[in-house]
Amino acid sequence: MRMTALWRRAAAEFVGTAALVTTVVGSGIMAQTLSTDGAVRLLANSTATVFGLAVLIAVFGPISGAHFNPVVSLADWWLGRRTRTGLAIPDVGGYVAAQTGGAIAGAIIANLMFDLPAIAWSQTIRSGAHLWFAEIVATTGLVVVIVGLVRTGKAAIIPAAVGAYIGAAYWFTSSTSFANPAVTIGRAFTDTYAGIAPGSVAGFVAAQAIGMVAALGLIAVCYPVGPAETAVMTNAAPEERQAQHA
Length: 246
Known about the structure:
The chain is mainly α and 246 residues long.
């Protein structure tokens, strides 16, 4: 993946994140239009996001890794910084800029598709310790799912697994699992079902950053080695595993 030019990877991150936010916001608008039942709206919104996210990861994964999320890009850099297997710092900057720009573009696209103003600042206030805690939990789980699958040699199922996790987190977190600073910023540009008031963005982003740090701690404990080393350790006899840890 790192052999691909940064501009090409950044373009994939821009388009992928834009499509993701278009899916989230657009399905939210459609759900709000078709139903007044809160549970039905959340079901419609989460279902569209599950399928849309899985497809987008499968499509753009071979190009950029399909991060679509500054937290994932920063975690990738941190975990691979010593072995130079992750993103370089300039790559992180390019990814984050592309993701944020893509998220804003995605909200604008969704607004225009439903004949709404291109930019309408959300009036939905999402603030409070319980929501911030929910974002910490959601973001921690997301990063652990991704890295855990990579480090156990199961990267092939990441599209389905990440889609499923986010779909579940829509329902088990009080914040409906934004778990993504770029998407959070993008959703401030739409005054619709999926929006978040600009004044609430900072609290969500701070919680997501804390979630990333918590995830890195869990990864260090549960998944301290890469796929090849894990395979060797799993297949080795007990005495060999003890020697490998010595």
